[in-house]
Amino acid sequence: MKFTINHYYRFDNWKTAFLAGFLQATSILVIEFVNFIVIMTSSSFLTVVMNFMALAIISEFDNAFYAGLGDDKNKRCLEEPQF
Prior knowledge:
Elements: H1 2-6, H2 14-41, H3 45-59, H4 61-67, H5 73-79
């Protein structure tokens, strides 16, 4: 998010890039908050572990979608050092 603010001229629409980072940060905070609530309200160790693993898998969905992009123009922009 800070990169988009400092280098707004590199983006066609810097607000969209900022929003993408903001939504990812917000989703991680929400998942951690839900994880904390679930752990505090669980009655057994097995329930804590199962719920934690379920939330860990949910938090990794964005990486799975990113890996599935293949040879996309936007993915190249993120990975190449010249950008």
